Structures are given as structure tokens and as C-alpha cells.
Amino acid sequence: MARPIDSGIIFFARLALAVLFLWGGVMKLLAYSGFVGYLHSKGVPFPEIGAGIATAIELIGGIFLVVGFLIRPLGIIMAAYTVITAVLGHDFWNVVDAAVQRDMVIHFWKNIGIAGGFLLLCVTGAGALSIDAARTPKRRLL
């Protein structure tokens, strides 16, 4: 049985992750053509489609994190997305400038850490302060 404080901590963790992705999704939406250009410069195939998918994942995923909806499957999707963005967007192994490479290494490993947080949410679930908890049938004692 979970302690009452656990749901508050899980809620805070969801919000902390959501802020990052909601902000990123909004920025991508506001500068959409620039984001498509960035993906093109990174050699991403079909950058127009990739930009739409990335923006949707960040915005919808961020909203689902805030309200606690479908958190277990969302955790897997967001973990995979975050690892993919680490590999495509923070490819430090292709950078020759030492200062830029150092920054890319930091961002790469931050993304991997964030993916770990999403995997933890996949295991813990959304907590009591969520739509998922409200949708779960309550056990009745006989």
C-alpha cells in the first residue's frame, strides 16, 4: 500500500516533466519552420512529418502528464521519444568543437536521465492525484 505522500511526490514529478515538454512543444509550434529546418540540418528523414510528430508528442504528452492520463503507456512512449531525441539532437560524437561537444554530452545524458524518470512513472503509475486513479474501479470489501 502506498503512503499518502507518495501521490504528492508522483504528482510533482509529473508536473516537473510536463513543464519541460509543454514549453518545448509550444516553442516548436511557434517557430515551426525553424524546427523543420533544424531537423533537416540534422539529417532527419521527412523533417516536416518528424516536426509534426515531435510537436504533438511534446504537447499531448505534457498535457497527459499534468492530468495523469494513461501514464503507464505514456511513460514508455515518452522514454523512447526522449532517447531518440538524445541520439538525433545531441549527437556529441559528431561534434569537433570541444565546448559545443561538452554541452552536447551534458544534454545527451540529461535526456537519458529524463527517460529514466519516465520509466519510473511507467512502473509507479500516475498516483492518486490523477485521471488514471479516478478511472480505476475501487475495491469493495465484502
UniProtKB/TrEMBL annotation:
It comes from the Bacteria. InterPro entries: DoxX, DoxX-like_oxidoreductase. It is found in: Cell membrane. Keywords: Cell membrane, Membrane, Transmembrane, Transmembrane helix. It is a multi-pass membrane protein. GO terms for cellular component: plasma membrane. Pfam families: DoxX (PF07681). The keyword tRNA processing does not apply. The chain crosses the membrane at residues 12-31, 51-71, 78-96, 108-131. Belongs to the DoxX family. This is DoxX family protein.
